Amino acid sequence: MKPAPFTYHAPTTIEQALGLLASEPDARVLAGGQSLVPRMRLRVEKPATIIDINRVVGLDGISVDAGAVTVGALVRQQTLVTHDGVAAVHPLLREAGSYAGFHTTRHRGTVGGSIAFAAPWAELAATTTLLGATITVRSTKAQRTLAAKDFFLGPNQTALAADELVTEVQFPPAPAGTGFGFHEASPRYRDYATAAAAASITIADGVCSSAALVLLRAAPTPLSIDVASMLVGRVVDDAAIEDVVQSLAGLDPPTDIEASGAHRRRLAVTLTRRALADAWVNAQEAVA
Amino acid sequence: MSTIENQLVTVTVNGRTYERAVEPRKALSDFLREDLELTGTHVACEHGFCGVCNILLDGQTVRSCLLFAVQVDGASIETVESLAAPDGTLNALQQAFNDNAGLQCGYCTPGMLMTAKEYLDANPDGGTDDQIREAISGVLCRCTGYQQIVESIRAAASAGKGA
Fold first, then answer.
1. Which of B33, B66, B132, B144 to mutate to test the interface with A (most CBs of A within 10 A)?
2. For the segment A183-222, what is each residue's pLDDT rounded down to a tens digit?
């Protein structure tokens, strides 16, 4: 189907873009368009105004500084996953980001767009939550920085106000000796995730000194599981992982046309086992 | 009814520069087919799932149905029409598809060819079958005859030139 008519703006400065966002009552920001345009074609969305930010200068930088990664909102997902400097300090961004669509859609799809769109299957949303990233947003009035855990409110719902634009995502450095794991299940190769698990484990003195686990599609938003309380001070062997798995018994994932909640819970268990096991192996390599 | 004005777009397609006035909601795929009469680019699902409309935008594959024509002002585009010689002689990639039954019904072929061209330009030796399958994983062949398509791409690599 063809999209409904809209008025098109292509600002070249962030101030112009924010001014349009503040003044246009029924506007949508167009970044990569890999999620928005299909919805416009299905006429799920019929914005009166499109603010195309692809020509805005200064939103497409990546910087890696002492282990911290700062990613401009307009950075293409393929640029992020192929960036060797990023992969060297945060391999999870390459690992999980590679599951976002296909390389062809990642050529257009942006990091900021994926986060602002907040699809329940968004791997990049899971990575921001797991890595403790912060998201900077701007309006004509103010700039604020939100923790990822406070940003995602529900499927396609975020703390972003109507006049705000995501400008940047900051990933803090991972502690030395940290390893990551990411596993995803989907009905077809490279299709949207039915469930996914992202894990990180840090090793100090031969045992786990910190750990995190985020599940996708186990809840309406990326779900953080408090695995540190179960794993810190231990070798993360099968017994330790099974303790985590036991704690997932109460998960109540959403049921929809793709999968039942019970099926998603079983997937979450399997993917958690794999993600934690990988994170442990990778952490051992990181300390070696 | 719409009172939205057309916008002027200047774009280079297959080495030739075009200037056209278009409605903002017009997809690049429709612009190529209807306004420039370059009907080699096929459209199928029209919402980004199938990859049949893949073209090269400034050297990278993109879904042309998920771009608006107004967005490509100033850009350089290559479509499937760029592959054959002006006299119609197929290039090595097209010939390999012909020789290895890679076309089948032909509907996904333009998307497969442009995606394979991008892949072979970056991997002239053809890489592994897994790499080829990963490269074309974003293009749906509804004949489901991927084997011949993989063989065609491998044959094009063996012929020494992808595109």
1. B66
2. 999 998 888 999 999 999 999 999 999 999 999 999 999 9
Q: Do B67 and A2 touch (CB under 8 A)?
A: no
Whether the complex's predicted ipTM is more than 0.90 is answered with yes
Q: Which of B9, B25, B50 to mutate to test the interface with A (most CBs of A within 10 A)?
A: B25
Which residues in chain B are closer than 8 Å to A3, comparing Cβ atoms? 25
Three-state DSSP at B114 gives helix
Q: What is the pTM of this model?
A: 0.96
Q: Which domains does chain A have, with CATH numbers?
A: 7-55 (3.30.43.10), 62-171 (3.30.465.10), 178-287 (3.30.390.50)
Q: How far apart are CA B11 and CA B19, in angstroms?
A: 7
Domains in chain B, please, with CATH? 7-82 (3.10.20.30), 92-158 (1.10.150.120)
Contact B25 A6 (CB under 8 A): yes
